[in-house]
Amino acid sequence: MAEKKEPRKITTHVLQEMKQAGEKIAMLTAYDFSMARAIDDAGIDVILVGDSASNVMAGHETTLPITLDHMIYHAQSVIRAVKRALVVVDLPFGTYQGNSKEALNSSIKIMKESGAHAVKLEGGKEVEDSVKRILSAGIPVMGHLGLTPQSIYKFGTYTVRAKEEAEAKKLLEDAEILQEAGCFSLVLEKIPAALAGEVTKRVSIPTIGIGAGNLVDGQVLVIHDMLGLTNEFHPRFLRRYANMYTEMKDAVTSYISDVKSKDFPNEKEQY
Ligand code: KIV
Question: For the purposes of burial, counting CB atoms within 10 Å of the CB of 188, is it exposed (0-12), middle (13-18) or buried (19 or more)?
Fold first, then answer.
């Protein structure tokens, strides 16, 4: 009988090889065991336990309220399900901006208590020291530039970032700073496709875009958005692969109707 081959585990080195080989990286968010099991089984390369859990799991308007302990709870659930993907966990708002020691302590707590493989933080030059300090403990760091939702009250809106020359120039500089500091990859959120392509050419680490066009090394979407579980969110960059809000609602409507009409359970569905 043929031996079942273990899947190739994705590491930061594998992602680097994928960039060099021109193989695109597929990344999705997940926050719980069942969703993580399904997307890992489907062959996703990277799972992000994003602080978007604050929006799609907890119903907050922004990513600001989620805590380190909440993130660790989600990460633990995801890690239990995953056999192949690289699991990256967002450092939530207020757990790394104070200073690099705080950033290191938060990262160590995530890694120790969840078993995740890497952390992600938002920002450029202002987090340079933190990236270096986290890396000094052997923890891989993913950067995040462009629209950084933890700074929503500074931006004021969720519109496309870095359309003006000065902001685009700063973003390019920040990308190089993060690469020099040691980030293994960069998320580029909601910036013009040409600028994302320019960053991707300038840095040797993989870039992962969300609303950043096709000239990047990979793509990321929030799983609830791409499955159509959230039905009030329609940005131009979002492609929906299912309409699960409607499917779930229809299934629940049928269940209610079957219970009320005494059709469920039937003879075969009881002991
Ligand atoms: O929290 C998140 O889901 C993210 C992605 C949008 C990249 O940071």
Answer: buried
10's enclosing H/E stretch is: none
Among 87, 120, 210, say which to mutate for ligand 1: greatest number of ligand atoms within 8 Å of CB.
210
List the pLDDT tens digit at each of the 271 positions of the chain.
Answer: 566 667 789 999 999 999 999 999 999 999 999 999 999 999 999 999 999 999 999 999 999 999 999 999 999 999 999 999 999 999 999 999 999 999 999 999 999 999 999 999 999 999 999 999 999 999 999 999 999 999 999 999 999 999 999 999 999 999 999 999 999 999 999 999 999 999 999 999 999 999 999 999 999 999 999 999 998 889 999 999 999 999 999 999 999 999 999 999 999 999 9
Which amino acids are annotated catalytic? Answer: 189
Nearest CA to ligand 1 atom 4: 50
Residue 51 beta carbon below 6 angstroms from any ligand 1 atom? yes
The response to whether residue 79 sits with its C-beta less than 6 Å from ligand 1 reads no
- Domain 12-240 in this protein, CATH class: alpha beta
Instruction: Decide whether any atom of ligand 1 lies within 6 Å of the 28 Cβ.
Output: no
pTM confidence score: 0.96
Cβ-Cβ contacts under 8 Å for 90 (sequence gap 6 or more)? 48, 49, 50, 51, 71, 119, 120, 121
C-beta of 52 in contact with ligand 1 (< 6 A): yes
Largest CA distance in the chain: 70
Amino acid identity of 183? C
Which atom of ligand 1 is the closest one to the Cα of 222? 3
CA 54 to each of CA 21, 70, 206: distance values in angstroms, whole numbers, following the listed order: 35, 9, 26
64, two tokens: 């600001």
